[in-house]
Amino acid sequence: MKNILKTIAVLVSASLISVSAKAGELSVTGSAKFSYMTHGGNDTGKAMGISNELNFTASGELDNGFTWKYHTELDPADGGAASNDDTAIVIGMGDMGTIGLYDAEGGLSTELGWGIGAMGVGADYANTMTNIGRGFDVSADPHVAYTTGAGMLPFGIQASIGFAPNTNDGQSNSYKAGGAQVDNSANGTNATQYKITASPIDGLKIGGDYYETGGNKLGTVGQEKTGGNVYAQYAVGNFKIGYTKGELEPGKGTNKYRTNVADTASALNGAAYESDGFGIEFAVNDALSVSITEEDFSRTNKTMAATASTNSRATVTSSQTTIMAAYNIGGATLGLSLVDTDNSDYTANRDETKTIVSLALAF
Fold first, then answer.
1. Lowest mean pLDDT among 200-209, 241-250, 254-263, 271-280
2. Does residue 341 surpass a pLDDT of 60?
3. Residue 345: phi, psi to the nearest 5?
4. Neighbours of 62 (CB within 10 A)
5. Fewer Cβ atoms within 10 Å of its own Cβ: the N or the C terminal residue of the chain?
6. What domains are there in the chain, each with its CATH number?
7. What residues contact 244, with CB distance under 8 A and at least 6 apart?
8. Residue 312: pLDDT band with limits 50, 70, 90
């Protein structure tokens, strides 16, 4: 895998030798959002919030016909702090595809590919869970990725591969950063992710991804960190329906016989996770859209004694129903989202709700 990526990098570098970049262009886009959220059930909090996101983009063309694009975002955090993140440099090679250098950007997980939600995709937009345990992504680490060009493959197929050379490196590194050094870990020292999507017939979108770790791993690893998702979406008339399924297993290194850790609710500490989601979205007219999604998130803990030949399993499933409505008024979108979760935070009989009223302005 490393050799393939090195070969691609060498070919791109060779193509860039002796060419110069033409003057680029700079643009700024962004959004401003307001929300009022109330909770119900086991959580009775409420809050108002305003946030904005500014995306600075520069682009240009090289003398050999390749294009380049750079972007970085300025995002606010809770408490008023702000940071630059989601940074990328992407080289467009025409029909040969693209190569991107990413920091906290360039995700290849397809967990949101099913794309159902008037305001955002299901539980990703709003959930009561502290951690639902879904979707490992190479974007968690600085990485390089290659994506095939549009039309290169039949049936609308596009394929991507991303490689993070140092999963202990951290994000938002400056130019010439040295990088953290970890000899080995339960999660290895590098990560690779594969993604494939296709549009075989009108209205149908399908895809999937697979994430795995590599490099130097602890000799006591009983379970390697892996994960993947598949999805399908079909649009007909004013309707869209979608389905998604994902599975992941965190790396476990307690010893080669045991894969579990303490079963503490709200923490990503289970031995295995599985998610299923189904939803329908309907465009009432050009301005109004409504949707409903049903999602299940299961966490399994496995316990095995050091001398045992079998293990015991305990599984808890949290279920979430999300109803959304979005109304567009020119450059503004008014939103209403209702979230109802059973067994929230993988805790039996913990039922929680959320109601979110929002206003979003794009510029």
1. 254-263
2. yes
3. 60, 30
4. 17
5. C
6. 2-177+185-362 (2.40.160.10)
7. 111, 112, 113, 114, 229, 230, 231, 275, 276, 277, 278
8. confident
